[in-house]
Amino acid sequence: MPEANKYSVQEDLELLVSAALEGGKIALSYFGNSPKSWTKEGDSPVSVADIEVDQFLASKLHEARPDYGWLSEETEDDLVRKDYETVFIIDPIDGTRAFLNGRDEWCLSLAVVKNGRPTAGVIFCPVRDELYTSVEGGGSYLNQEKIAVSDRPSVTGAYIAGPVSFLEKEGVKSEQIRFSPYLGSLAYRFALVACGKLDAGLARARARDWDLAAADLIISEAGGQLVDLSGSTLYYNKTRTNHPGLVASSAKLFKRLQGISVED
What we know:
The protein has 8 helices and 14 strands. The chain is α+β, with helices and mostly antiparallel strands and 264 residues long. It has a 7-stranded mixed sheet with strand order 3-4-5-6-7-8-9, sandwiched between helices.
């Protein structure tokens, strides 16, 4: 297993920030200009912007950290990454459909993951000029200002983003939960939980490592948690990269949201 302990988490974060900002410029050069796009496996859109940003990030990050593994939504997964203690987990454009439709919530999601858990993470939303950053043990920040999850003590009246199927549950209606307008990026949805703009965010089963790794750390270091419906911690860089249904919130809200989420 390649050794990769010679870099501090802060050094890794600085590298991720630099890469995200440069990658964001590439993505913006295509935004609103009708870039060529097509549909890949799973009926998910991909564009030339996704590919070019992915290639740029792979080149920059590999050059700086040749002893880190690599997992990206837009790079074929050969599982060699599992031989590495430390890996980059990347989504070059999270929210490609939003990107292609001219919406502004798409973002770049970059994380360093060691032994299955993120140690440095960046979510950058270029159009909104929002840069979320975090390192293990160092708190989370939005444009260099420290952030924290909502301290709402009750689920009643909570402001939540998630699948329409959740909105339709009886428990949601009885609690008068308010629902956020649709957000086309899962990583950005969870970033809004980290900074307290949303009280909670939910995701149905099928989210992948690259959607989650950076957001997981940013939420955790902001005082919240991103867990599955049983309350279990998520681990990354496993053979399978998909995850079950998820809840991002403060610990205070999780138990009640968990109960609603698992109702039939």
